[in-house]
Amino acid sequence: MKIFKLFTSVFFLILWTSSLHAQWTGPKVKPKEKKEIRYGSLTPKNRSDTDMAAFRNYGLGQFIHWGLYAIPGNEWEGVSARNGAAASEWIRTWGGQTAPKNWKDIYDNLYKKFNPQTFDAKAWAQQAKYMGAKYMIFTTKHHDGFALWPTKFSNYNITKSPYKKDIVKEVVDAYTEEGIDVYLYFSVLEWNNSDYFSVEPKTEAEKKKYEKFLSYTKNQLLELLENYPKIKGFWFDGTWDQSWVKAYDFTYNLEKELREKHPGLIIGSRFRNDEFGKRHFDSNGDILGDYEQGWERKLPQAFEWLDGNDWDAVMTIPPNGWGYMKDWTGLYTKTTDDLLDMLMHTVSMNGNFVLNFGPDGNGLMHPEEDIIAKEVGDWMKVNSEAVYGVRHVDLPKSNYGYYTKKDQNLYLTVFNRPINNIIRLAIPKNSNEVPVTASILGGYESELVVKHSDIGLDLDKNTYYDILLPKEFSPERAFVIKMKMGMPISKSDKLMDAKM
Ligand code: JFZ
């Protein structure tokens, strides 16, 4: 019996995860026949306005998950929730042997203890600025339903905590002041709202309740736009339940209203679905919303997978867990080098990389996060030219690292340095743009030697440019070679084939 139960739950888990991931984590397959869609995207692919142009140039962002879950920090009275809850911000769902008695009750009363004495939004914003973040995403309300702003539409909000003050306002103001654009994370799904349904409401009474929930959601979103007109967009979450999926007429009109109220507003593909229940991409495979919002703790392997859409990737430092997690021991936590690699992977494919932070119950970052923010910032001080406002480069993939480009500049961020100190770039023979000069960003002053090495391999479509790295140059992290592109001095010779 137990085994059977285990099998069925594993089966449903696999079913659930595969349905979550099916559409957006691999190459996009477009259906052969076009369908008539009435609830498709309200905005065109690759919006061309200035707000979207700014989004496209961010390169690096910061995510902050903060809420009541910051108080337990993934443990309670010395007992870890690590094997009982999905992630630290999901600790309310803690179950099984290790969970405290009446845990949900304890959790739902945590707001009485939420009093972050050392919270300083300005300090966060300065840290993000130092790190090089150009935008940030802040959790106004996670799945637990607790609002960090003084919402008029629910009592479960910050004014009922001992802290009382409007946290969302503090964050929006402080980051905007530093020149960092703010996006608000908003979970539609709520765990402890009796008007919420995960399945489609069936009876009249259920429908009535869910109607109430929908107008509550709409009211809160309009309220956020009203209160914080400086924000640039929403980052939606918790929109996967059938109740929401079936409410496509409501969500379509809501999106319209939000956009009308706040021209330029940016909304990703995780907000709503079409009338056939297709999420992120509609039934014709076209993106819903302004950018692809499915790259969460995962990165595309190939540029083609993105189908030319704008996108961002959000990333945790621990394997999983977005909220504060006090104890990082025994987990692989991503190093600064790991994160820089992911950053360049992302921007080399036209995406924005968004690094998550989970401050504690007092408003302080995890000490390891402070170190990473500093180290990423140090690196960005020297190398951000290869990150901001750059585009994908259509060259054969380099094994040394990642290409990006801006105007006549080609950047290669080197993560794998060759033993012989010769960086050999493969450039298609018919290319009318080749590296002419090269230098290393920051520190190393003199220009590098660039040599055309036309190897002459038969049938090879490429010719080669060698950049010689000075032996004495020994940086501690990835470094960026900046090249000026220009006309080739001589076209690659077509060597006469010997007779075979
Ligand atoms: C969601 C939340 O449940 C989580 O707590 C966190 O806030 C994260 C940023 O978003 O988690 C998800 C949502 C969607 C997918 C995976 C995790 N997904 O589509 O693969």
Name the descriptors.
TIM Barrel, Immunoglobulin-like, four-stranded antiparallel sheet, eight-stranded parallel sheet, 500 residues, 10 helices, alpha/beta, 17 strands, binds 4-nitrophenyl 6-deoxy-alpha-L-galactopyranoside
Structural class, from secondary structure content? alpha/beta
How many distinct beta strands? 17
Lateral arrangement of strands in the main beta sheet: 7-6-5-4-1-10-9-8
Helix content: 25-40%
Distance between the termini: 72 Å
**Can you tell me the CATH topology of the largest domain?**
TIM Barrel
What is the CATH first-level class name of the largest domain?
Alpha Beta
What is the CA-based Rg, rounded? Answer: 25 Å
Characterization of this structure:
With 500 residues, the protein is an alpha/beta fold. It has 2 domains: 39-76 and 85-386, TIM Barrel (Alpha-Beta Barrel); 401-486, Golgi alpha-mannosidase II (Immunoglobulin-like, Sandwich), CATH 2.60.40. The chain is 25% helix and 19% strand. The protein contains 10 helices and 17 strands. The protein has helices spanning 2-21, 50-57, 103-108, 121-131, 167-177, 204-227, 242-245, 248-261, 336-347, 367-383; strands at 60-64, 75-76, 79-80, 135-141, 181-187, 233-237, 266-267, 292-296, 311-315, 351-357, 401-406, 409-414, 422-428, 434-440, 449-453, 462-468, 479-486. The chain has an 8-stranded parallel β-sheet, with helices on both faces. Strands 11-12-17-14 form a 4-stranded antiparallel β-sheet, covered by helices on one side. The protein has a 3-stranded antiparallel β-sheet with strand order 13-16-15, with no helix packed on it. A hairpin with an 8-residue loop joins strand 15 and strand 16 (462-468). The protein is globular, with a radius of gyration of 25 Å. 40% of the residues are buried. Residues 1-23 have low confidence and may be disordered. The structure holds 4-nitrophenyl 6-deoxy-alpha-L-galactopyranoside. 4-nitrophenyl 6-deoxy-alpha-L-galactopyranoside is lined by residues 20-21, 87, 89-90, 237, 294, 296, 314, 322.
